[in-house]
Amino acid sequence: MTDTATLQRASKSLDLSPFPRTSLCHQPTPIESMPRLTELLGGPSLFIKRDDCTGLAMGGNKTRKLEFLVGEAMRQKADVLVTQGAVQSNHVRQTAAAACKVGMKCHVLLERRVPGVDASYEETGNVLLDNLFGATHEFRPAGLDMNAEGEAAAEALKADGHRPYFIPGGGSNAIGALGYVNCAKEISDHAETTGQTFDWLVMATGSTGTQAGLVAGFEAVGHTLPVMGVSVRQPREKQMNAVHGLTQKTLEKLGVEGVPLSRILVDDGYVGDGYGIPAPSTLEAVRLTAQQEGILLDPVYSAKGMAGLIGMIRQGFFKPSDTVLFLHTGGASALFAYQEQLIASLN
Prior knowledge:
The protein has helices spanning 4-11, 35-41, 62-75, 90-102, 125-132, 146-159, 178-194, 209-221, 236-254, 280-293, 302-314, 339-346, and strands spanning 31-33, 45-50, 80-86, 105-112, 136-141, 164-167, 200-205, 227-231, 265-267, 323-328. By secondary structure, it is of the alpha/beta class. It folds into two domains: 4-59 and 174-346, Rossmann fold (3-Layer(aba) Sandwich); 62-171, Rossmann fold, CATH 3.40.50. The strands form two sheets. Strands 1-2-10-7-8-9 form a six-stranded mixed sheet, with helices on both faces. Strands 5-4-3-6 form a four-stranded parallel sheet, sandwiched between helices. α5 (125-132) links the parallel β4 and β5 (136-141). α3 (62-75) crosses α4, α3 (62-75) crosses α7 (178-194) and α10 (280-293) crosses α12.
């Protein structure tokens, strides 16, 4: 554990002001205790970082990334944001709202990544909000290189006289990851000002930008908090390598030396049948967190992360004396697209 004096010296050395940025996010987000869930599971002491409360379009982790991505788009005088994601993408929802906030248009590509869903899946939840924010969209079948598809769509808009700015899926590049470099500094500053420290940070990891930004940020401020990513889609080794690659690019952008692959921690035991498909452990995590703490998780990302945290506690991964911080990445608006599974899990 990094001592407070080291935190104080190191956190002042991280300067993100050279990077274009626009204000979209309520921050710092709260850190709250979860005493009833802690008691139910028999320890360790559980806390939650409420990045579902970032404010934009019902909140979520992508808003931190979009502050830097949209800042860069504005620097380039773009008039339309182009991005891609799965049908019920939280990133797409927040990008569409960010475009509204800065007076840009938004065009999105939605990948039909989740099999066996009915027609309402493409009309409710985040898709309803995308439409409300005025985003135009195209659907794509599963399995394509969606970033390449998005870049092609941006080129087509450019040929029509627009000034598009393409944002990769999840906002996960070295620019977007700066949002979670800043979050890492926020957590370090919390430790400095309150004296409250944590032994672990646990979170859902998907497109890699959030975990990579946190690892890079903690490295940049000299904080040794380990970040355990619970994969929502990819096998452990593939996810570790992807997170590590973006961590290195982010640290390079900050002018900080890279980290070894061993710093990237991933548990892939809670993916279930695939991305966007809730496993029984996912649905249990939604129910327990709602009924014990009054907090809503989403069935694609945050609930799989919480399922991993619950599973690790039951397996004795943490010491009873540990203090664990869970990062809530938002996404509760997607719950309505999973009504049938959720209702069944309550019976």
